[in-house]
């Protein structure tokens, strides 16, 4: 029956992959969006993602005896977020020191975060951890491909709700205003008596919490294993994705779905027998990111929506 | 003569490395290994005797070349981290030249062609990043990172399809180079000639940046791009030229790995010399001569990876974790310049006679 779908399997697989593959993009890009709104860049979310993936998997595996197969993965998600916050605190503190460049700290955090993940994650490569239960919206169909495609994770739904919520947060709350003020005009915020250090620290730690959850969606949802190759640069692409989304959380959602779909292209085509350019199709998200940046960037003016203090030396 | 300022520039990174070593010891303790035993093993495996020195230097060679890929553009104010991609592309260029020429020319000529094509491939790869930066305003850090992934996908495509040697089953690889075309060892050692390439490249890069008008122009543009434009410096051409040179150094590293170590192109090319090179460049504060020395240190740490696994039961990512710690500590030490009183030059008032 799955064979009966034939080439129709390709758009179906891409649609399913869009949701599965888009979830980590969604969390990391929302995290990066929150961070960049405060005027700092966190390139190190790739490391945070890996640490999140590892700690979620490890906790889910270790706690299954104590809390059962249903709760264990959610505990894993929470711990992944907390682990992300620890890395975020390091980034937030170090990148605000005198003469320290936030891009350089980000590169260091990529190395450090992946080092932590692989160092402590080695024993968890073999065992099988309980996965986050999914909502099977495709139960009405007896075509396995459709059932698989409509198996939706609560994490994905949470992310979809989070995007407009964050939009509202930036637009309509006092805290959102403070973050935007610090990101756009730090001097003015300082004159208002706001501690730039604290606001940026909280934004970076909060963003890293979301990136950690994005990591958990990799190891406990899709692809649902823990290996050292689990992340294929989603944490880095998120930085470009936020630029593409013009620092707007709802557009981050659309952009994440686009990237998830691009990522599903290679495996979807391989499943119907087109595998001669497998590796090149797998590079589709990177080429897409680069193409988007080439089209949207301009040497003449700063981008609309960009926080004013982003990438500037802090005073 | 050492002034207090350069004394500070040497002491602070060294202090940072020592702090990183201490923190690293805590991680080893957490993993159930004796930190002092680990330190001892690293020292023995990296610098303990001549044979371990040779292992260290073999790894230092590609690191030196790859570090220049970050260090040179840094003088222009660009943070380029496309080392891994340029290295991979250089390896691809080298294997294309080496396989195409085969035995039709003397090995010496084939090796030069391999080095040249590797440098052109790597250089063009990073020049694209520079061009995008200059004409489209694309952030060079992110674009160079994306280019890494694209380069690795290209390599996997080439060695898994068009260039695949059917006899390489488990690890898709290109056809092997002819034995006579492989880069030999420095007589009396196991160290290949790549080390000479690396040291020479670092010296040339140092002279180019510090002692030529070209380097002066680049440093000026890096210091203040608007002033450089007003002074009539061709900023676009400078960006392209520096990026091409930077990429060609990493490309040469790829050629060295292909021609001296692996003898063919496969996924062993992207084992992390690119990311190690970024670390080296930052620790050396983008000074090419210092990069040569830091490469030997990091090469030693990489060389000790095996022994940490075998005799202390530590995972192979231990080396990666240590690199991350060193990187973070060195970045923090940047904020201490001018802060430690004992390292500051004495003020004029204190020396009225001077």
Q: What's the average pLDDT of chain B?
A: 90
Shape of chain B: globular
- What's the tally of helices of chain A? 14
Secondary-structure-derived class of chain B: mainly alpha
Query: In terms of structural class, how would the helical and strand content of chain A be classed?
Result: mainly alpha
Give the N-terminus to C-terminus distance of chain A in angstroms.
Answer: 64 Å
Describe the global form of chain A. globular
Q: Compute the CA-based radius of gyration of chain A.
A: 20 Å
Q: Which spans of chain A have pLDDT < 50 for at least 5 consecutive residues?
A: none
- Gyration radius from CA atoms of chain B, angstroms: 21 Å
Biggest interface reads: A-B, 52 and 47 residues
**Strand content range of chain B:** under 5%
Sheet with the most strands: spatial strand order of chain A: 1-2
Instruction: Give me the oligomer status.
Output: heterodimer
What's the count of strands of chain A?
Answer: 2
List keywords for this structure.
heterodimer, A: 315 residues, mainly alpha, two-stranded antiparallel ribbon, 2 strands, B: 354 residues, 71% helix
Plain-language structure description:
- The complex is a heterodimer of chains A (315) and B (354).
- Chain A is an all-alpha fold and 315 residues long.
- Helix content of chain A is 70%, strand content 1%.
- Chain A has a two-stranded antiparallel ribbon.
- The radius of gyration of chain A is 20 Å and the shape is globular.
- Chain A starts with a helix and ends in a 19-residue tail after the last helix.
- The model of chain A has no long low-confidence stretch (mean pLDDT 89).
- Chain B is mainly alpha-helical and 354 residues long.
- Chain B is 71% helix and 0% strand.
- Chain B contains 14 helices and no strands.
């Amino acid at each position: 029956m799955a064979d009966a779908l034939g080439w129709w399997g390709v758009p179906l697989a891409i649609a399913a992959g869009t949701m599965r593959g888009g979830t980590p993009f969604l969390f990391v890009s929302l995290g990066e969006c929150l961070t960049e709104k405060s005027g700092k860049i966190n390139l190190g979310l790739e490391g945070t993602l890996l640490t999140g993936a590892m700690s979620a998997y490890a906790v889910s595996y270790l706690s299954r005896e104590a809390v059962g197969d249903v709760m264990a993965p959610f505990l894993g998600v929470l711990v992944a977020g907390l682990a992300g916050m620890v890395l975020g605190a390091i980034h937030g503190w170090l990148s605000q020191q005198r003469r320290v460049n936030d891009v350089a700290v980000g590169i260091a955090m990529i190395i450090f975060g992946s080092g932590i993940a692989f160092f402590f994650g080695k024993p968890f490569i073999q065992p099988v951890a309980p996965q986050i239960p999914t909502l099977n919206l495709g139960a009405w169909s007896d075509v396995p491909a459709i059932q698989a495609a409509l198996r939706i994770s609560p994490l994905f739904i949470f992310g979809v709700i989070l995007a407009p919520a964050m939009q509202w947060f930036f637009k309509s709350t006092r805290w959102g205003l403070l973050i935007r003020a610090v990101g756009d005009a730090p001097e003015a915020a300082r004159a208002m008596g706001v501690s730039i250090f604290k606001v940026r620290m909280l934004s970076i730690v909060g963003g890293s919490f979301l990136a950690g959850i994005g990591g958990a969606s990799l190891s406990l949802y899709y692809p649902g294993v823990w290996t050292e190759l689990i992340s294929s640069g989603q944490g880095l692409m998120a930085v470009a994705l936020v630029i593409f989304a013009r620092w707007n959380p709802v557009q981050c959602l659309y952009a994440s779905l686009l990237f998830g779909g691009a990522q599903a292209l290679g495996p979807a085509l391989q499943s119907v027998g087109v595998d001669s350019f497998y590796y090149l199709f797998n590079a589709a998200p990177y080429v897409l990111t680069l193409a988007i940046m080439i089209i949207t960037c301009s040497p003449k003016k700063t981008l609309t929506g960009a926080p004013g203090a982003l990438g500037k030396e802090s005073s | 003569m050492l002034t207090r300022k350069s004394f500070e520039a040497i002491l602070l990174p060294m202090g940072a490395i020592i702090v990183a070593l201490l923190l690293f010891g805590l991680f080893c303790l957490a993993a159930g290994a004796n930190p002092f035993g680990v330190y001892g093993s690293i020292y023995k495996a990296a610098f303990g005797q001549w044979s371990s020195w040779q292992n260290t230097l073999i790894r230092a060679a590609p690191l030196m070349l790859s570090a220049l890929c970050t260090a040179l553009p840094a003088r222009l104010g660009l943070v380029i981290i496309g080392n891994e991609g340029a290295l991979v592309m250089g390896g691809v260029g080298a294997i294309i030249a080496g396989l195409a020429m085969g035995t039709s020319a003397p090995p010496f000529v084939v090796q030069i062609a391999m080095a040249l094509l590797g440098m052109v491939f790597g250089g063009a790869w990073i020049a694209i990043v520079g061009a995008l930066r200059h004409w489209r305003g694309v952030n060079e850090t992110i674009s160079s990172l994306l280019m890494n992934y694209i380069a690795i996908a290209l390599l996997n495509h080439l060695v898994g399809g068009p260039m695949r040697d059917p006899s390489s089953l488990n690890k898709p690889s290109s056809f092997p180079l002819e034995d006579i075309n492989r880069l030999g060892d420095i007589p009396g050692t196991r160290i290949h000639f790549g080390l000479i390439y690396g040291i020479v490249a670092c010296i040339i890069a140092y002279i180019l940046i510090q002692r030529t008008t070209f380097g002066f122009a680049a440093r000026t543009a890096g210091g203040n791009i608007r002033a450089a434009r007003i002074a009539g410096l061709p900023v676009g051409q400078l960006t392209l030229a520096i990026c091409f040179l930077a990429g060609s150094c990493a490309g040469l590293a790829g050629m060295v790995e292909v021609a001296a170590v692996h003898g063919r192109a496969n996924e062993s090319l992207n084992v992390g010399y690119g990311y190690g090179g970024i670390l080296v460049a930052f620790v050396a504060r983008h000074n090419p001569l210092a990069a040569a020395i830091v490469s030997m240190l990091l090469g030693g740490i990489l060389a000790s990876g095996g022994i940490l696994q075998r005799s202390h039961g530590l995972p192979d990512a231990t080396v990666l974790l240590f690199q991350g710690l060193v990187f973070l500590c060195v970045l923090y030490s940047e904020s201490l310049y001018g802060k430690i009183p004992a390292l500051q030059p004495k003020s004029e008032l204190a020396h009225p006679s001077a």
